[in-house]
Write a structure and sequence with these properties.
By secondary structure, this protein is mainly beta. Among the domains are: about 170 residues, no CATH class; about 130 residues, Jelly Rolls (Sandwich), CATH 2.60.120.380. It has four helices and 24 strands. Strands 8-9-10-11-17-16-15-14 form an eight-stranded antiparallel β-barrel. Strand 8 and strand 9 form a beta hairpin. The longest helix is centred in the C-terminal third of the chain and has 30 residues. It is elongated and about 115 Å long. The two termini are about 40 Å apart.
Length: about 450
Amino acid sequence: MPPEDDRPNPWGRPAPGEATGPTAARTVVPSESDGAPAAEQFNCPNCGGTVEIKAAGYSVNIACQYCGSMLDVSDPDVRIIQRYEGEVRKLELPLGSRGVLRGTEWEVIGYQRRSENGQYPWDEYLLFNPYEGYAFLDTDGRGWSLGRQLTATPEKKTLVGFEVDGEFYEPFYAQTRAQVDYVLGEFYWRVHVGEEVLTADFVRPGKMLSWERSDRETVWTLSALLEPHEITDAFGIDPPKGGGLPLPHQPSPYRQKAGQFMKLAAAVAVALIVITFLFGGTSDPQTTRINLATNGVEQTAKVGPIVLDRPRQAVTVSAQAPGIENSWIDLTYTLTNRDTGETFEANNVVERYSGRDAEGNWSEGSSYSTSKFSMIPAGTYELNVFAAGSRWTQSQFGSSSNAQVDVTIEKGATFFSNLLLALLVVFAPALWQWFKHLSFESRRKSDSDFAGDDDD
């Protein structure tokens, strides 16, 4: 919209609070803009109050702001359609209020209180701009949405959804009846208390597609959810307090964060994996074989020496007994510094069992085990191995009483458990944000008539 000083006053009437001149039966307030509708004033035939038509030439119904009576302004004599005498509702947005929403200045000219047979009420304000036409401002107390009527029917997609401008809207509220409970102000269609239409709603994050059908016409409206500050900036009213269930078309506040955290976590995870394999691995293996009886008697062996030339270095010790069956070998390793006598100890076991029962063949255990020493100071070391073999029910599983185990010592190690723990720490914030997002979506969809049909 061009600046105000470059464009004639589009409203063609005084702003709220300005003098309106003497009251007449039907007075025309001329418009200063080309093509903009003129404002008109007349006296309410029910209570005598001065009523101003904001969009003269377009509006056909108006509810008197003093007594609430519905008037037919398309009739030159302003005929009473429905008489209503009582206290006029105090509106959160008074008629005549003006504010800028999404770059357009709107004036509130009409108000409806609507519900589903008296339940689940919501407020609907009719907005008007001489150049942009009409818009709807809706709220049920949880948030505000700005809607515009579509000029083309949305394209049907799948069995239940619709598409508008390439965006898909899934069903949320099934077809039901909505009624008008209260009316105030003017409208470009004939509206009255008790009027009913069939409605259904479809949503995508941030938008709602609404369908209404009466005995006269079918109307589609596309609404965009407003940020809380937008309604405050435009009309100076407090933003919704929040709480309770999310709005049907309210975007998850956690989805964007979850996506950002996941991208960051993925980048860090790749770096950790590269570092693990770049600085992990083993070298300079030395192996010794130990022959032992499976009678529980401990035998010893030495492997080395092995020279660690880094200030701090990992060491990997592995044991493999390929022929072991229904036996186990207890292993104790002592890594000893030849110069200082400092020792580092670890324990492990190699075991494997198999058999057959009523359910068939079974096996468990492994003939291979690994022990890792981390942060070993530089120096020359020897590995002392203490091994003891035992059999499980020897009489049942054979008479062999010997076992062989190959023990290998190597410089370096790859700590996959540490990598896994690091990845869990890195992904924890992203997973937490995704959990909150899914929880939000679950609460949002729980209000849908189709809840459970498309779980997130």
